[in-house]
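Hi there, hope your week has been kind to you so far. Do you reckon you could talk me through the fold, stretch by stretch? Thanks so much in advance, here it is.
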Amino acid sequence: MARLRIAEVFESIQGEGIWAGVPSVFVRVSGCNLRCAWCDTPYASWEPEGPVLEVHEVLRRVLGSPLRHVVVTGGEPMLFPGVADLCRALRADGRIVTIETAGTVWLDAECDLMSVSPKLSNSTPDGRWAAIHEARRTNLPVLRRLERERHCQWKFVLAPPFERDLEEIEALVADVGVRDPARIVLMPEGTDSETLRARARSLAPACMARGWRLGPRLHIDLYGNEKGT
C-alpha cells in the first residue's frame, strides 16, 4: 500500500486560480524538489513535516468532508506515486480534484484541473540550494506534456520589479504552447493583504494588455498567512 507524508488536511476556501472562492478540502503532501526563496509552506518543502500515512487513511479523512472539491497540494505532490492512487480514488467517489504542481516532474495522476505553477528566476534562493533549484525549476518536456494531456491553468508568482518576470512568462508560455491566454494567471508574491493589493494594482495593466487573469490570494485576505487555511 502506497504511503504519503501529509503535512495537513483541512477545509478552507480555495484562494487562488480560476476556482478561487470554492469551498474545498486541501491535502498538503509534504516534500518538495525545489527550494523557492519565498516559499510560504516551508513545513512541506524546506523542512517537511507530518506523519507518513497509507493512502486509504488519507482518503478516509478527505471523504469525511461533505465538500466536493479537493485540492492536492504540497510541497510537490507529483513526486509521489501514492498521489495518483489517491486522486483516482477521489474521482471514483465523484470528487472534483485539483492538483497543484510546479510542473517539474510527470506523474500519471487523474484530475479535473492541473494547476501548474512554473517557478520563475525570482524563486531561486541564495546559498547552497541555488544551483540545485535553478537546474530543476523548469522542465519543458513535462510542461508541454501537461498542456497537451491535462486541463491546466498556468499560475505564475511574480515579485517586483515585474518587467523581468513578465518577459520570462511570455517566453515560457510560447515555448510550452499554452493555447488559451485566459488560463494564464498572474499572482503577486506576498503574505499579507496590503502587500498583495498594492502589487496586484501594478500587475493589472499587464493582464489587461495580454488577456491574462489577475489572480487573488483570497485565503490571505480571509485568514492571514496561517496553516490550515
Notes: Residues 3-223 form a domain with the TIM Barrel fold (CATH 3.20.20.70). The mean pLDDT is 97. The longest strand covers residues 3-13. The two ends are 29 Å apart (CA to CA).
